[in-house]
Specification:
Elements (H helix, E strand, L loop, with lengths): L6 H13 L2 H17 L5 E3 H9 L10 E3 H18 L3 E2 L7 E3 H8 L3 H7 L7 E5 L2 E7 H10 L1 H8 L6 H16 L5 H12 L3 H14 L15 H12 L4 H8 L3 H18 L16 H5 L5 H10 L21 H24 L7 H24 L1 H11 L6 H18 L8 H27 L17 H19 L4 H11 L10 H8 L3 H21 L6
Parallel strand pairs: 3-5
Antiparallel strand pairs: 1-2, 4-6, 5-6
Helix pairs in contact: 1-4, 2-3, 2-4, 9-10, 9-11, 10-11, 12-14, 13-14, 17-18, 19-20, 19-21, 20-21, 20-25, 24-25
Length: about 550
């Protein structure tokens, strides 16, 4: 009942709430409540008559408007609610008829106060009443009577959910204990049988039994649904769930309900989400809602950029491994700044949502929203990296003479590019290519001499010491223990990755069902992407794993 059906009544409500004095609004409220009790749903009412009954003023507007009884009842409820919210509180003595408080209605109708509060959204109108110097919600008896007449079945059904007396609670537990001893079904089945006998709702019976089992675990009637998991068990449950084991199987395995399994999974995902690092460059515009549309919108000259993208051609002298680098045009300074601001803004929004998460009371909607923001940010980041990969190639070519392996040098430069994307502060006004070039060349100046020194140090007369035959004189038990420890460590690290990232690592390293490590080209064919894209993803994943391993104080991969 949140929208008016008659626009004229909506205008009338707005006028009275905004401009009528408080005392006059109280009088209008009383007249509207009286009119509500007189409405006949089979009749129609002229708008001028309705306006006069509420305001004691007959307007010249809407002279031909006639309102059906159903529409008038609907909109009159909304008018009364608006007037009640805006009118000052009055004492019960100032009202012409009896007024019932929430507690009095709860006892009279045999329902909870929460149920009565829910009825307000279905047309039960209340007003502020002062009693004993305290403001309370009150309901006119005439309004209550009309609501009960119009919602008889709803009120009768809600009465079956009312609070239990001590004797009723003992009767329920006695019946449940007898049925559980003779194995007369699950908790749900037992609750339904008792509900039919006692005329109560199954949910009330089920809640009573579960609450008893929770308070008296040593006497639990249905202990199989009250299992409590320790931290280690929760980790094992979540690990099993990530491997594809169904919730129903986990519920049986850990002796808990399916809802408890979902709760444990949500807690583990919340912890995993909160443990993941989320660094970004903050800007004051992120806190201005008016700028959000511009920040997440299309970048400048997006149409021209797409036109250039379709017109791009791969140079004839470009190696096949580098052909994919020419799929995207270079970015202008304005486009750079837009994308960097968008990437960091999406991270900022995800960070703000993460701050509000309680790991013990997390909602699936929160996960989906945060993950969607992180995925959008990662997409922008990948676009920035891909658009600047040719910069890495150009710098690597200038240093190729100093290194024995051009593609190894290229991979090292890509790592520098990724770090530069993460650290670049667009608000300083610099062009990203300038900052990235400096970062890549600085890294080459350090890594190339170190690589030369390493090779010169470990080269023997005939072969490199790194390719020497390993010592096989190791205790067999020590090997088994080392392998198991390594497996456990790797699986722990992989849990921090997305499913696609896990699959790439497992295929590349030959884990689980992949008996042998696959080449980049083989992985690309299986995933439907290019070999170069697989290499980029693998580099990013390895960097991510090293960061996580460092933060978790584990051995880096």
């Amino acid at each position: 009942m949140s929208e008016f059906r008659i626009e004229a009544l909506k205008e009338l409500t707005d006028q009275q709430v905004r401009f009528a004095p408080p005392g006059q609004r109280l009088a209008q409220l009383a007249r509207a409540e009286k009119l509500l009790t007189e409405i006949d749903l089979e009749r129609s009412y002229p708008y001028q008559y309705v306006c006069f009954r509420v305001t004691e003023f007959r307007p010249d507007s809407h002279q031909d408007l006639v309102i059906s009884g159903g529409d008038l009842e609907h909109d009159l409820y909304l008018l009364i609610q608006s007037l009640a919210r805006s009118a000052p509180a009055v004492t019960a003595d100032e009202v012409e008829e009896p007024v019932l408080t929430l507690e009095e209605m709860s006892k009279q109708l045999n329902v909870s106060t929460k149920t009565i509060s829910r009825w307000k959204s279905r047309g039960l109108v209340g007003r502020s009443i002062m009693r004993n110097g305290r403001r309370q919600m009150g309901f006119l008896k005439s309004v209550v009577d009309r609501f009960m007449a119009a919602n008889h079945q709803r009120v009768q059904k809600s009465g079956r959910f009312s609070q239990l007396s001590d004797s009723e609670r003992e009767d329920i537990l006695r019946r449940a204990k007898r049925l559980s001893r003779v194995n007369q079904g699950t908790l749900t089945e037992v609750a339904r049988r008792i509900a039919r006998r006692l005329g109560r709702s199954p949910e009330t019976i089920r809640y009573t039994i579960r609450n008893f089992d929770r308070m008296h675990p040593e006497q639990a009637l249905f202990p199989d649904v009250m299992g409590v998991l320790d931290t280690h068990s929760k980790e094992n449950l979540y690990s099993s769930y990530r491997r594809g084991i169904s919730v129903q199987s986990l519920a049986k395995q850990f002796n808990i309900t399916a809802s408890s399994v979902y709760r444990s999974i949500h807690e583990a995902e919340a912890k995993r989400l909160l443990d993941q690092p989320l660094d970004y460059i903050y800007h004051e515009s992120f806190d201005d809602p008016a700028q959000e549309a511009d920040i997440i919108g299309n970048m400048p000259d997006a149409e021209d950029y797409e036109a250039k993208r379709h017109a791009l051609k791969v140079p004839k002298d470009a190696p096949p491994e580098l052909a994919s680098l020419y799929n995207l045009p270079l970015l202008t300074k304005e486009q750079d700044q837009h994308l960097f601001r968008k990437m960091n803004f999406l991270k900022h929004k995800a960070h703000q949502l993460r701050l509000k998460i309680n790991p013990l009371r997390v909602r699936t909607q929160d996960f989906k929203e945060i993950e969607a923001l992180q995925e959008q940010s990662a997409t922008v980041k990948d676009h920035l990296i891909s658009c600047n990969m040719r910069l890495v190639v150009a710098i690597a070519k200038r240093h190729a003479a100093q290194s024995d392996n051009f593609f190894e040098l290229l991979s090292d430069g890509n790592m520098s590019l990724i770090r530069a994307v993460e650290k670049f502060d667009y608000s300083r006004g610099n062009k990203f290519s300038t900052y990235a070039s400096w970062a890549i060349m600085k890294n080459f100046a350090r890594s190339i001499p170190e690589e030369k020194r390493r090779r010169e140090r470990y080269v023997t007369g005939n072969e490199d010491a790194f390719t020497g035959t390993p010592d096989q004189r190791t205790d067999e038990q020590e090997i088994v223990a080392s392998v198991e420890q390594t497996k456990h460590r790797v699986n722990r690290l992989l849990e921090y990755l997305e499913p696609r990232e896990q699959q790439i690592v497992r295929m590349r390293a030959g884990l689980d069902s992949y008996s042998e490590g696959m080449t980049l080209e083989e992985i690309g064919q299986q995933l439907g992407i290019t070999k170069e894209r697989v290499r980029q993803l693998n580099v990013r994943i390895m960097s991510k794993l090293r960061t996580i391993a460092k933060e978790q104080k584990m051995d880096a991969m």
